[in-house]
Amino acid sequence: MRKLDSVVIVGGGLAGATAAFALREQGFGGQVTLVGAEVAVPYERPPLSKGYLRGEEPIEKAQVKPESHYESEGIELWRGRRAVTLDPHARWVNLDDGTTLDYDALLIATGAAPRSLGAAQAYLDGVLYLRTVEDADALREAAASARSVAVIGGGWIGSEVAASLRQMGSEVTLISNLPRPLERVLGPEVAEVYRDLHESNGVRLVYGHVAGLDGDRRVSSVVLSDGQRVAADLVVVGVGVMPRIPLAIRAGLETTGGAIAVDEHLRTSVPGIYAAGDVAAAWHPRFGRHIRVEHWDNAIHQGRTAALNILGAREVFARTPYFFSDQFDLGMEYRGYAPAWEQVIVRGDVPGREFHAFWLADGRVAAAMNANLWDDGEELLRLVESEERVDRARLSDPGVPLAEAA
What we know:
Largest sheet: 5 strands, parallel
Number of helices: 10
Strand content: 25-35%
Mean pLDDT: 96
CATH topology of the largest domain: FAD/NAD(P)-binding domain
Shape: globular
CATH class of the largest domain: Alpha Beta
Number of domains: 3
CATH architecture of the largest domain: 3-Layer(bba) Sandwich
């Protein structure tokens, strides 16, 4: 086995920073270099669409670790630098300023970039995306003077941004290409709860496909394919992200579904190179396929697992996907993996927004969600991971304990 003296981590987000500190926690005494494209000290992204965007939380609260910890742990933090090429045989990475970094092991955690709108005149002033702390700062400033805001995209980022901007006092229209926000991932039954949530808080919901933007230099409206126009002098685009894989492609690493393919140990197709976080599609032994999860929890745990395996462990990453969202007064947690399902069962007080939801596939709970109920998370996880068939009538009955639904 090659002697491990230096580890280079490309990507200064949550996965990369978590891996760097995990190496030190495990006693690695060699060189650890963390290269981040952003100037900011590595931070968690969920607050960008919530508390930080609304000006309720400082960015320091979102930092993975304070800047001083990198120095005290002997982690070289290279901020505002981007890796452009790597030689997997000679084991070096070349940065955009011409610096070359040698490595014995490399972790690619370059994350993802916002998917562009691709509509006519998408370059107009007043069209913003949200991915970085600078994006959040620009959006907060622009929203303060905007007369009307249109948020394009009914997924998690779009619905969270729409909620936060409305809480900040903006007149907000949320445009989705499905009748309800979050319908693609949650299905119409649960998505209807979010539709009611946004409408009751003053968000205007519009269903349609964006054909283009209108305006002279600055955006003035969003044009839909049916000819409808949504007036807006500020447009936020939240139509998904694309993994940052050019570095991997140029190095000949195997990809799948537009992401870096890694095995259950987070190893790429090239020895000595690992990948974690939004950029990685990891083989999941329970699901029997590569899956990519864009969330805080996944970045933390994959970063830690990658660090352990770089140091010689054989830890399998088989964690059940988990994510959370807070919008207005509705907080939720979702556990499981349900790209398709046959039925959604909801139990509890749906009008009062305190309920559980279950996505069933082949008679088993593929995913479960708790909405404003915070005591049953572990029970829901056990139900998902048991992969047992459930009695649908008992599962839908709030009087039956979750442990007795299988």
